[in-house]
Amino acid sequence: MDRLGSRCPLPGYLRPSVLICLLILTTAFLSYPMLRTLSLRLRSAVTGSYVSGTYSIVFVNCPNEQIARDIARASLDKKLAASVNILPKASSLYFWNGEIEEATEILLLIKTKTSKVHMLSSYIRLVHPFEIPEVFSLPMDQGDVHYFKWLEEGMEED
Q: Which pTM value belongs to this model?
């Protein structure tokens, strides 16, 4: 009887090997995104190909062209962006304080590294005249490798 009890674990008791397997699986599951990112960056460096999502386009609406130009120029000067398109006269309709508002705004399309989106958004919130500026980004999925290289060079620190 003693021998049988030593072979069969008590109910609710996991063997150390099962715990180790669970630990390895959990670690692999949690580290997968980081390992995938590292492997894609390594592949990109070796082959010269583009890693989807490395760059983003940030959309920002401004109340007038002067503010749009000031934000665009400062973003470039601070190396937070490599390129900014200023699109005039975007008609906007939106809810504000429970009412439907209508305005003509200037749209900025700011091309930057995805890793710089947070810093760029913080800067825009500091200088933008709107109480809640429209700032959001979309990752660039595909594009010309030479263009992405040019974006990278445009944001290199001196």
A: 0.70
Task: State pLDDT tens for residues 98-112.
Answer: 999 999 999 999 999
Q: For residue 38, give both structure tokens.
A: 């590292």
Contact, 55 vs 114, CB < 8 A? yes
Helix axes 117-127, 65-77, angle to 10 degrees: 140
Q: Report the C-alpha gap between 70 and 123 in whole angstroms.
A: 12
Do residues 141 and 53 lie in contact, with contact meaning Cβ atoms separated by under 8 Å?
A: yes
Q: How far apart are the first and last CA of the chain?
A: 77
Single-letter amino acid code for the residue at 90 = A
Residue 73 to residue 83: CA distance in whole angstroms = 10
Local structure of residue 129 (DSSP, 8 states): S
**Of 138, 132, 67, residue with least CA distance to 101:** 132
Predicted local confidence at residue 132, as pLDDT = 94
Residue with tokens 């700032």: 135
Alpha-helix residue ranges (DSSP H) falling in the chain:
2-7, 16-47, 65-77, 117-127, 145-154
